[in-house]
Amino acid sequence: MSTKLLSMRDAIARYVFDGASVAIEGFTAFICFAAGHEIIRQRKRDLTLIRMTPDVIYDQMVAAGVARKLVFSYLGNPGVGSLHCIRRAIEQGIPRPLEIEEYSHFGMIGRYVAGAARLPFYPLHSYTGSDLPKVNPHIRFVQSPYGEEKVAVVPPLNPDVTIVHAQRADIAGNTQLWGLLGVQKEAAFAARQVIVVVEEIVDEAAIRSDPNRTLIPGLIVNAVVHEPFGAHPSYVQGYYDRDNPFYLKWDEISRDGQRVSDWLDEWVYGVADRAEYARKLGAATLQRLKPGEAWSQPVNYGAYR
Amino acid sequence: MSTKLLSMRDAIARYVFDGASVAIEGFTAFICFAAGHEIIRQRKRDLTLIRMTPDVIYDQMVAAGVARKLVFSYLGNPGVGSLHCIRRAIEQGIPRPLEIEEYSHFGMIGRYVAGAARLPFYPLHSYTGSDLPKVNPHIRFVQSPYGEEKVAVVPPLNPDVTIVHAQRADIAGNTQLWGLLGVQKEAAFAARQVIVVVEEIVDEAAIRSDPNRTLIPGLIVNAVVHEPFGAHPSYVQGYYDRDNPFYLKWDEISRDGQRVSDWLDEWVYGVADRAEYARKLGAATLQRLKPGEAWSQPVNYGAYR
Amino acid sequence: MNAQATSFTASEMMIVTAARALAGAHTVFVGVGLPNIACNLARRTVVPDLELIYEAGAYGASPARLPLSIGDPALVSGSIAVMSQADLFSFYLQGGRVEVGFLGGAQIDRYGNLNTTVISDYTTPSVRLPGSGGACEIAIHAQRLLYIMRLSKRAFVERLDFTTSPGYLSGGDARRRLNMPGGGPHRVITDKALFDFETPTREMRLASLYPGVSVEEVLAHIGWPIARAETLQVNEPPTDEELRCIREELDPLGLYRL
Amino acid sequence: MNAQATSFTASEMMIVTAARALAGAHTVFVGVGLPNIACNLARRTVVPDLELIYEAGAYGASPARLPLSIGDPALVSGSIAVMSQADLFSFYLQGGRVEVGFLGGAQIDRYGNLNTTVISDYTTPSVRLPGSGGACEIAIHAQRLLYIMRLSKRAFVERLDFTTSPGYLSGGDARRRLNMPGGGPHRVITDKALFDFETPTREMRLASLYPGVSVEEVLAHIGWPIARAETLQVNEPPTDEELRCIREELDPLGLYRL
Questions:
Q1: Is residue C1 part of a domain?
Q2: Of C129, C133, C166, which has the smallest distance from its Cβ to A73's Cβ?
Q3: Could you tell me if A59 and A139 lie in one domain?
Q4: Are both A145 and A25 inside the same structural domain?
Q5: Is residue D3 one of the residues assigned to a domain?
Q6: For B189-225, how does the pLDDT look when each residue is reduced to its tens digit (9 = 90+)?
Q7: Which chain A residues are within 8 Å of B212, Cβ to Cβ?
């Protein structure tokens, strides 16, 4: 088994090019801030950023000027309020105008599914009576060939790069995650290139002990990055908690462009990599975010010889 | 939590009515022979039998005269050869003519998905250049609204009853399975009524210790049947092996209508229930089918308080 | 219900009213904030068997703490099932398995149509709101919809700036004509009164008042001449037990006391 | 390859030829029977990194025994990933992730179209065959197709009784005109000779003979006047190591020796 291990720096340098469409997925959980920060540090430009919920990571990336366009379905700081940097970009063109392409959650999910399954469209019951199709010409309707019924469709989405965070993978990129699965699998299969970022690198034997837990096979993975705490202030089920105080604090910081700049200087440009970021966060914070234990009951797959 | 536990006899009597469409799913694995045999014993009639791979269980049910129609995608004794009883019904109308409605595997999967998702159709890239659409008018083609591309579609499938075998459930029907997942989830969500048959009834706490393993929620389950060895001669991952010698033996038995009758008399009509069937199989057979142990490595979901 | 003894806030009255509206329900699609507290209160009072479904992909969640977001890890550990969002939206929501959906938004009109997208124009908005998320699908598929919104003339408007999620559209049987499977808006729970849509035109209607609130106080916050039920009931105030649950168990920090 | 010293059967020559045809491949969609042995032989000889995909839903299987069926439990335990068949067909096969597909059938025509459905008429068949299973989709989506079939005039026919799975259809660029993503038939591996489709018309062509087989012997079993490559090679016989693998490890009971 040949290794796909790369540093985050090398993975981003190799696979995220200026003008690329990039999906960093993860629904509240598993959001790879480490990858987003490295993209900012490498001053990538003109990216199309794709995410169901842009969240604080895309707020930071938009503020840093890496994005030309945003494809999304929910533009909020979850449980807190607005994403002020993205709002400034949309409402005032600061730091630069931001093109948007907007769906509902199910529409975004469907786009990834169609992209992963090489389908020309994904049908869903949505958008009837909504103004969304009026502002997004990609949302269309088709007639069922079995009756009068019409159904909405969305086109496939194939990001140039999808970045997925998870608990563990082997060096070939066979990746297991548990907790909120979100659209991690679909976004990975839909992508032209896949970077997997994990808390732990494990032996192939660990993967093979529970094959139903493998959502993303090494087959579709280009790079594996070992990056503990790579999702902070988002979280990784069983590894660390969501840093809710940070999400609340970002609501304040992000209202002021200067404070955002200062924050980026200190926490992104000012650190070399995620390891330095984690040291800077400090042991007390990491300790505060450490959950108790709640182990799955193991299951017997049986040895068949 | 109110219990949904029923005996197999009561579950079949309550939910499988004459003329019903019934899906007993499971791809090679998890095939609920116990349910099929109880349907034969209760002399249900005019059923539409639905399965991707009718397998030996539907061969037996067709021979016993319960079926009017078969909806399927692969008509073989897996790894062995023909399903001779079903062939006699199709080729010679014995014991009665059998209507067929035929798809490919992906077409059947898509029909369940559309049924489960309340979609008017499921699109797939298949059937181009094949004669299948000529003999099955339900297979149609639609034009993509995003270009010239045409894509095949199949209509939703909503069985009156789906019967799913699995390793374990709690008394509310929250069901976990591992191994070959087949279309168990999709067939259950597509059904009007769901009977879950399991090797073990477990505490709700076992289910909650690993929620990603729960494929079928009690929400959609009408009855839970506790039926150890209920899938024999098919198998249940980690519990018992496939009885390959029986599949080979059925190839001989099934070539001769009289031998099939004798077999049904002895092993279906001649036993009261699956417990008696298992006793009749005997300890040596059950021991022969017992696999060694191969446990999944447990994962930590974390305690968040 | 036992007698009301304690004073309570408008938010507490909203939470209690929302929880009571869940009586008899089996499954609810939970939003964050007030709906989240209301659903958990309902489980402790009127519907112990209520199963909570979160759009993040958790079914039968049993959170040990009140989650800040609908993707909180506490919704995962110990829940009955956690699945991909493709499965959640396809098989649970679109599959018709969700009974009650909770929604809220920046603007609502008389037919229960909802705006969570923009204030003013879409391409040059004065305020860019979060957008649909799953709201558009919840509005279409849930068997019945409960809205939770504070009364204000900016929110209860004659005409939406943008329709994100459909209520009864232009009223009457417009939903049915468009083959929408869900039942549409059922109640609007506000900080002053409760509204329903129990008329053939499916126009929002003042159904009952909270204790101490006058009809005029309500009408002053609604941007159109709203209909009212023939006899206006007054909602029961929170019981001691409901208030104890909220204050001691569900929101000990008082984040939603206001 | 080391020198051939031992005698071998036609089946063994088929298995070896199929295994060698996998050289350079990364993923193969495995059918049961001969393809299964061939794929496992390839992993032990020409392509150690070959990943086996089974339509039952297993990826990266590493079976400890030779499975009778493609849904054997030995394909699950210790494999890399096991998924729903919806995911397998959507994301792996239709998603274009499968490089080589193996197929066989009752009838094949000059363009590699395949019949696994009926002999004679569909509604009143003289023989009802298994049908498509996943074959129709494998034929459309695999980047290249390998067929394994024994030569016989009943099998290699001028005209199929039923087209289950498309090869090159009417030949030439017919596949491309129908937007079929997969590359189509690549080789036909028989018990006497190897065939390819390396011509503009995409007609099947005799490419090489097995040791000791004459051209006439081959032509006698084909129901149309088949083309042949300009120079006919003779395939290398099985090596000792290949035979040892088959006989000692993969098929110790000799089920596929015939």
A1: no
A2: C133
A3: no
A4: no
A5: no
A6: 999 999 999 999 999 999 999 999 999 999 999 999 9
A7: 178-179, 181, 213
CA–CA separation, D170 and D63 (whole Å): 39
Phi, psi dihedrals of residue A286, rounded to the nearest 5°: -60, -35
Residue B55's H or E segment, with its range, is helix B55-63
Same-domain status, B269 and B122: no
Distance in angstroms (rounded) separating the CA atoms of residues B26 and B183: 7
Counting one residue from chain B and one from chain C, the pairs whose CB atoms sit within 8 A come to 71
The tally of CA atoms less than 13 A away on the side-chain side of residue C190 is 28
Burial class of residue A140, CB neighbours in 10 A (0-12, 13-18, 19+): middle
Long-range contacts of B201-205 (CB under 8 A, 24+ apart): B201/B5, B201/B168, B201/B169, B201/B170, B201/B171, B201/B226, B202/B168, B202/B169, B202/B170, B203/B170, B204/B1, B204/B170, B204/B172, B204/B174, B204/C80
Determine the structural domain holding residue B282 and report its residue range: 8-103+158-288
We report the CATH number of the domain holding residue D152 as: 3.40.1080.10
Q: With contacts defined as CB-CB under 8 Å, which chain B residues touch D140?
A: 125-126, 128-129
Give the integer Cα–Cα distance in Å for A116 and A186.
6
How many domains, in total, are found in chain D? Answer: 1
Q: Is residue C2 part of a domain?
A: no
Q: D56: domain range?
A: 10-250
> Within an 8 Å CB–CB cutoff, is residue B232 touching chain C?
no
CB nearest to D89's CB, from B79, B106, B181: B106
C202, C172 Cβ separation under 8 angstroms: yes
Report in angstroms the alpha-carbon separations of D228 from D196, D201, D204, D207, D235. 9, 13, 8, 6, 15
Indicate the residue type of A242.
Answer: R
CB contact under 8 A, D76 and A116: no
Catalytic site positions of C: 55
Q: For residue B87, what are its two tokens?
A: 């062939």
Does the CA dihedral B128-B134-B136-B138 come out positive or negative? positive
- Can you tell me whether residue A13 is helix, strand or coil? helix
Q: Are residues A104 and C162, on separate chains, in Cβ contact within 8 Å?
A: no
At how many degrees (to 10) do helices A8-15 and A33-41 cross?
70
Q: Does A129 touch chain B (CB under 8 A)?
A: no
For residue B199, CA distances in Å to B176, B202, B236, B247 come to 11, 10, 8, 21
Note whether B79 and B127 are same-domain residues.
no
pLDDT in tens, B85-112: 999 999 999 999 999 999 999 999 999 9
Nearest Cα neighbor of B8 from B232, B226, B229 is: B226
Say yes or no for a CB contact (<8 Å) between B91 and D125.
Answer: yes
Q: Is A92 on the interface with B (CB under 8 A)?
A: no
Domain boundary, last residue among A154, A178, A193:
A154
Residue A5 · residue A224 · CB < 8 Å: yes
Q: Which residues contact A265 (CB under 8 A, 6 or more apart)?
A: none
* Model pLDDT for residues D160-208, shown as the tens digit of each residue: 999 999 999 999 999 999 999 999 999 999 999 999 999 999 999 999 9
- C-alpha D91/C-alpha D226 separation (Å) is 38
- Nearest Cα to B301, choosing from B224, B228, B214? B214
